[in-house]
Amino acid sequence: MTATAIADLNPSPRILLGPGPSNVHPRVLRAMATPLVGHLDPEFIEIMNETKALLQYVFQTKNSLTIPISGTGTAGMEAALYNLIEENDEVVVAVNGFFGERMCDMVHRCRGNLVKLEVPWGQVFALEQIEEILKKKVKLLAIVHAETSTGALQPVEEIAKLCHRYGVLLVLDTVTSLGGVPVEVDRWDIDACYSGTQKCLSCPPGLAPITLGPRAMEALRSRQTKVQSLYLDLTMIEKYWGQERTYHHTAPISMNYALREALRLVQEEGLEARFARHRLNHRALVAGIQAMGLEMFVPGPHRLPTMNTVKVPPGIDEARVRGILLHEFNIEIAGGLGPLKGVIWRIGLMGHSSRKENVLLLLTALEHALATQGYAVPRGAGVEAAGKVYLQG
């Protein structure tokens, strides 16, 4: 029996404008090709220290336990919840999209007592809704800052104040916001916050930044039972990332190289400049979308600049539009999840993908794709409207 020859790896050069991953800066790709050292090598330990400091900068925190979990954003979600929830703990999950639902599943797996607070997908929670449920005996509230499935941005600073007034821990999902919109862990007084590398940080998927504040660390240290996951047990992982350097698992060396370089790029650009770039490209895209007669899904005040959701017009085959964008223009966008399947398109403008040329190309390609289904758009209307936003700055 002879082996079948396998062709060289040569994926198409996609423009990634979906919900993640985003395009990766060439410097990050080069960093991944750096020769390996051991995960306890003194030189790698110095890289770990630098990565921690850069993550503290991006999270805007002085929390000592600010590290990348070895795993994707879902591992960050599990680490935050599994380490802070014990059996029979009262846990509130605020659900306004797919990833709130996923947190509910994890609370069940922790054998916590789930209290599910819901609003329709695409909406955000009012303070009154949150406060009413916090008046009960609750240990923890988990909420998504930037809901990837809907494009809604949840204000959280006042929610954090409410949580601490009632002695409740706040766990915040920033998978689609960290590095793209402000996330100020210390100023907002967030207890536990996690993210992913593959979105606004423009690093390949594979690590999940996480940070725990003093109240969360106290809850972690006062657990009555072991964390149910050895791999995600922060009481053990912190000893690897702390002074002890105690072996816990073999860290993904190349991914840590990549994250360090991606974070250096964030620092070089500066957080305020980076946030302004994401806002500008979002405004230009929205202007172009609306000039084409299309509607945004989320109301203006709560739109997430990094994840733009657009309503599919009546009579349009949304999957066919995505297919044209992918196969004729090499552009990836995504459809909706759950109840929003076939209802919206999800257009990510995150990190290295959030660029003027990508916005203008997408609007041109979308005009073409819609025209194939008889949707009439004044020629160039989207690009012209976006161009005016760029001229105004």
Which descriptors would you attach to this protein?
393 residues, alpha/beta, Aspartate Aminotransferase, domain 2, Aspartate Aminotransferase, domain 1, 2 domains, seven-stranded mixed beta sheet, three-stranded antiparallel beta sheet
Under CATH, the topology of the largest domain can be stated as Aspartate Aminotransferase, domain 2
**Helix and strand element order:** EHHEHEHEHEEEHEHEEHHHHEHEEEHH
Strand order of the largest sheet: 2-10-9-8-5-3-4
The CATH architecture category of the largest domain equals: 3-Layer(aba) Sandwich
How would you summarize the topology of this molecule?
Elements: E1 15-16, H1 26-32, H2 42-59, E2 66-70, H3 73-84, E3 90-95, H4 98-109, E4 113-118, H5 127-134, E5 140-144, E6 146-147, E7 152-153, H6 157-165, E8 169-173, H7 185-188, E9 192-194, E10 207-212, H8 214-221, H9 234-241, H10 253-269, H11 271-291, E11 307-311, H12 318-329, E12 331-332, E13 334-335, E14 344-348, H13 356-371, H14 381-392
Parallel strand pairs: 1-12, 3-4, 3-5, 5-8, 8-9
Antiparallel strand pairs: 2-10, 6-7, 9-10, 11-14, 13-14
Helix pairs in contact: 1-10, 2-10, 5-6, 11-13, 11-14, 12-13, 13-14
